[in-house]
Amino acid sequence: EVQLVESGGGLVQPGGSLRLSCAASGFTFSSYAMTWVRRAPGKGLEWVSIISGGADGTYYADSVKGRFTISRDNSKNTLYLQMNSLSAEDTAVYYCAVSLGMQYFQHWGQGTLVTASS
Amino acid sequence: DIQMTQSPSTLSASVGDRVTITCRASQSISNWLAWYQQKPGKAPNLLIYKASSLESGVPSRFSGSGSGTEFTLTISSLQPDDFATYYCQQYNTYWTFGQGTKVEIK
Fold it and tell me: Least CA distance to B34: which residue of chain A?
């Protein structure tokens, strides 16, 4: 059974940094692209970033480009999202998900809440 | 950037109703479209991919159709477990979600 468990969320001051982790199990992690999607309070889903299985391809939404960095450690079956220069607009539940062929998102974690507020 | 527009934003329906949600793309995306269901406090759940392919384990009352710029998600007979928010997502060029359609009890 595929399991994705996010961690690392919390309260951070505007301008601060946070690193999210997503621990994966139940599938061959290195064979699949992984993605981050967020949902801000009262808003819809927003794609954030995606990384290929071999980590040789990464893409970002314009809203986070230059501030967020996606990475993965295939030896630890773990996905990361380094978030810098956070603002109130980044406040959201962040989900990691498995992406089939860098297309749709088949399996999702339960999410971790990030709140950027003073 | 490809924009995805869903209609309606909110839909009131009763158990047993046939429900249709529409998703329009700002440019052609062929059939590179997925549909997700999300309930409050839960992760999204994949329903349909490639516009009309039903994900394994998803009830057959869900179906998807369309290509190019116009797509629909249909629930043939609404069940109590189906009251949720539904999102379309294009993956033709990068990845973009629609704004969501909330299906609520009439």
Answer: A104
